[in-house]
Design a protein that fits this description.
By secondary structure, the chain is an alpha/beta fold. The chain has eight helices and five strands; from the N terminus they run βαβααβααβααβα.
């Protein structure tokens, strides 16, 4: 049996970490095999790439290098973690995947979407999420949520950049309505979890996993 690949997308500060934990708890209660991971990162090699990408000192990084580093991290992540887990029939929950590349490097950085698709299709090795939850709130509302942590290179981008990222995510969701489910991230934690679980449960039943 092939597993289920679920991704969570959205700006930092929209509550992805909280909702991934809530879903993780539910799957654990049901005794379902799952693996939680993140991008960039998820493996020792990919985590080292993550450090390079997000280091605030790397202000000279060009957009093309940034996109290629994300793709390199993704290739290692897919090969070492995501693909093997899915082949074992596990549920993979990933904090960010290719949609983030399209939103950040494509719509916000204005790199060629065609080029991004090409290099990332190579990196993803035909592995794509079946279900994506996009937690959405205005970019201005995320600032207060992330100010309590150490800010990385992308956190320090201007608000206009973050607005373009959000708009990019919403365009992706509009193009892929069957896969991407937009959720109002200003709702309560339990209310958001209930929405996520109902959709997840439906797909798990369709696949015969519960």
């Amino acid at each position: 049996m092939r597993g289920l690949f679920i991704t969570f997308e959205g700006l930092d500060g929209t509550g992805k970490t909280t909702q991934i934990h809530e879903l993780e708890t539910k799957l654990s209660e049901l005794g379902l095999p799952y693996k939680k991971t993140r991008e960039p990162g998820g493996t020792p090699i990919a985590e080292k790439i993550r450090d390079i990408i997000l280091d605030p000192k790397n202000t000279e990084m060009c957009f093309q290098a940034e996109a290629l580093l994300y793709a390199a991290s993704r290739a290692q992540h897919v090969s070492e973690v995501i693909k093997p887990a899915l082949e074992k029939g596990e549920i993979v929950i990933c904090d960010r995947f290719f949609d983030s590349t399209l939103a950040y490097q494509g719509y916000a950085r204005e790199l060629s979407l065609e080029d991004l698709h090409y290099i990332n299709n190579f990196a993803m090795q035909e592995v794509k999420p079946e279900l994506t939850f996009l937690l959405d709130i205005p970019a201005a509302h995320t600032s207060e949520r992330i100010n309590s942590r150490e800010l990385d290179r992308l956190d320090l981008e201007e608000m206009d950049f973050k607005n373009r990222v959000r708009a990019g995510f919403l365009k992706i969701a509009d193009f892929e309505k069957n896969r991407v489910k937009v959720i109002n991230a200003s709702l309560g934690i339990q209310e958001i979890h209930d929405i996520i679980w109902e959709k997840t449960k439906s797909i798990l039943k369709e696949k015969g996993m519960i």
